[in-house]
Amino acid sequence: MTKIAETAFVHTSSYVDDGAAVGEYTKIWHFCHVLSGAQIGNRCSFGQNCSIAGGVQIGDNVKVQNNVSIYEGTTIEDDVFLGPSCVLTNVTNPRSQVVRRSLYEKTLLRRGCSVGANATIVCGITIGRYAFIAAGAVVAKDVPDYALMVGVPARQKGWMSRHGHVLANPDAEGVMTCPESGLRYREEEPGLLRCLDLDEDAPLPEKMAVGSVVYDELKQK
């Protein structure tokens, strides 16, 4: 039985199959298809021409832009952003002649990460919390929390704050400050960044959850 919350919106051109679930206040726009067995949380948004396969698990407040297919084997935690036409996969070595439906590989997109437009996430990996995958990047290995990944193949270029700004200029104690939020970050050990002011699993305080300055203005400071 299909479970679509009363407060959810599904455009008339989209289909939600029997056995799928769509949470409160989620919006599914034009030409989308949610297959049986897909589980979508609350307050999510899906742009035009998205496909969500059976078995996919999607948390709350996930934003998926146009032309994104989310295949079986994918789990997406809360607050994830998927940019336009980004690509997710579920078989590393696909062949039309070889059936691997029972061998779909698991891909985990952890809380708060962002995947840029036209980026590709090769299956079987984990994208860490608040990681930032640049537009057009091809990611084939696990990504640490807060890592900024760019290029083909993707390599870590630095660290990003929860507000999506490059963290730079550490002080004498190795602390880096987000130019927008003022939240402080430090690399506790090589490859492990942590926020000093807010737990990674805690939601943003309401006053920090609305942007007030465009990226280029902060970049120039």
Summarize the structure.
The protein has 221 residues and is mostly beta strands.
Helix and strand content put the structural class at mainly beta
Please provide the count of β strands: 27
Tell me the span between the first and last alpha carbons.
54 Å
In percent, how much strand structure appears in the residues? 25-35%
Residue windows where pLDDT falls under 50 for at least 5 positions:
none
Average residue pLDDT: 95
The CATH architecture of the domain at 3-94 and 101-162: 3 Solenoid
The level 1 CATH classification of the domain at 3-94 and 101-162 is Mainly Beta
The helix/strand order is EEEEEEEEEEEEEEEEEEEEEEEEEEEH
Helix segment tally: 1
Q: What's the overall geometry?
A: globular
Largest sheet: 10 strands, mixed
Give the name of the CATH superfamily of the domain at 3-94 and 101-162. Answer: Hexapeptide repeat proteins
CATH topology of the domain at 3-94 and 101-162: UDP N-Acetylglucosamine Acyltransferase, domain 1
Proportion of residues in helical segments: under 10%
Family: Belongs to the transferase hexapeptide repeat family.
Keywords: Acyltransferase, Repeat, Transferase
Organism: Geothermobacter hydrogeniphilus
Protein name: N-acetyltransferase
